[in-house]
Amino acid sequence: MPKRKRKFNAVSGMFDILPSEYPLWLKIEEVVSSIANFYGFSKITTPILEEEELFVKGTGQDTEIVEKQMYSFKTKGGKRVVLRPEFTPSIVRAYIQNGMESLPKPVKLWSFGPVFRYERPQKGRYRQFWQFNFEIFGDKSPIQDVLLIQIFSDILRDLSLSKWIVEVNSIGCKECRSYYLRQLKNYYKNRLREICPECEKRLKKNPLRLLDCKEEKCQRVKKFAPQIVNSLCEDCHQYLKRVLEILDTIQIPYVLNPYLVRGLDYYTKTVFEFVPQDKKEGQSALIGGGRYDYLINQMGGKDTPAIGGAGGVERIIEEIREQKINILAKRVERFEKKPKMFLAQLGELAKEKSLTLLEEFRKNKIIIGENVGKDNLKVQLEQAAKLGVKYTLILGQREALEDTVIIRNMETGIQEIVFIKDIVKEIKKKVK
Ligand code: HAM
Which of 16, 131, 265, 277 could hold 163 in an S-S bridge, CB 3.0 to 4.6 Å? Predict the structure, then answer.
């Protein structure tokens, strides 16, 4: 009897990207890369294999990812390693290890690559999937949270996806969260018979995760659970209020979801997820992220506020296909040159207007530097000088109120005032 030859299949939950699919993948990377370059993010690629401990400490010991979903094994040398289940702890490691802590802030890094989670494979949920990942280190201003949300909105819009909404919440800081957790535990302790066995464990180990459970009976209990937004300290409350105000001003569609907690342990204050507008049962987020002001310090670095987020490429491709969108013909601008101008701002209103102005410039393919989280005008002018730009646009408190901008010629020091609505036209004349 001749031996039957065995045919092999890819490992369950993992897929080939076929030549016929490549144009779409490349287009997505091109769109992400263009927006990353415009907003001053530098690309970083870290190894796929990392020490297991990095994620136990970073992602969190009691998260689903670390407890159940890591591809971990021992190397021949006896070291425990994992295929990265997400980017964030790796980027933080690389930032500290490579001396990037001494760079001027904020440090903005983006990545594109595969990550691995041992989940039950189903539509939109794979064991190897690709993420585009953005991190901003060293800025604690709420404008930066909104800037990141604006960046992700741009990516979806540039991919012609419009049927999504951003869910936003705050999960507070060390102080207010411990008060909230006590309330949450008390609420659930009285309802032990109404929750699943997994949630009983969560109540002991990581009560915030109770709000993440997808079991129907647990969803019913969650409906009346205390909401963290009612327990935020004054600082976190004001912070969330500001984030929502700016989102309103720049007209990004969002809802406040008081039960959004995210499945990773490092978050503080703002958390967000981009979800399809008419989300079907079981359908999950396209993009998710949040602020994580303690992680860098926890991982051995200096006390550094941070915010980031990541999008799932396969899920976005599924949306594009479902909506029968043809993005292959779309021309994507490459922003590889250095900025010829810089936008400096002062005051809260000016910051809000800066976000819209930056988008105007991006749409008009004019690259412009910024540091919207900074409050000090002198520091921003010094940054502009260092970049060697010919013009700096100054949007101060008075200009923001009057809807004007100052154009400062950095070589001659001559300044002129123009209306915001005319600024792109004026600049086009100057930098032609
Ligand atoms: P995450 O929410 O775990 O966040 O993942 C981000 C995105 O990856 C999700 O919104 C989804 O599109 C995609 N994704 C997650 N799991 C799967 C899966 N099994 N199959 C297909 N796609 C999936 C993070 O990973 C954080 N590191 C984001 C972040 C960066 N936060 C701060 N900085």
Answer: 277
> What range defines the domain where residue 317 resides?
22-173+233-327
Q: What percent of the chain has pLDDT over 70?
A: 99
From 327, 351, 373, the end of a domain falls on 327
Ligand 1: does its nearest atom lie under 6 Å from the Cβ of 319? no
In a shared domain, residues 43 and 107: yes
In this structure, the answer to whether residues 318 and 385 fall within a common structural domain is no
Please tell me the residue having the least CA distance from ligand 1 atom 32: 308
Ligand 1 and 210: CB distance under 6 A: no
Average pLDDT of the residues of the chain: 95
Query: Could you report the per-residue pLDDT of 103-137, keeping only the tens digit for each?
Result: 999 999 999 999 999 999 999 999 999 999 999 99
Q: Is the CB of 166 under 6 A from ligand 1?
A: no
Distance in angstroms (rounded) separating the CA atoms of residues 227 and 348? 28
Average pLDDT over residues 273-302: 91
Question: In 381-390, which positions are buried (b, 16+ CB within 10 angstroms) versus exposed (e)?
Answer: bebbeebebb
CA–CA distance, 84 with 90 (Å, rounded to integer): 8
Q: Is 145 in the pocket of ligand 1 (CB under 6 A)?
A: no
Average the pLDDT over 246-261 and give the result. Answer: 96
Q: How far is the CA of 131 from the centre of ligand 1 (A)?
A: 7
Ligand 1 in reach of 129 Cβ (< 6 A): yes
In a domain, 198, yes or no: no
Q: Is the CB of 266 under 6 A from ligand 1?
A: no
For the CA of 65, the closest atom of ligand 1 is 3
Stronger pLDDT, 3 or 194, i.e. the higher one: 194
- The single residue listed with the structure tokens 């009691």 is 62
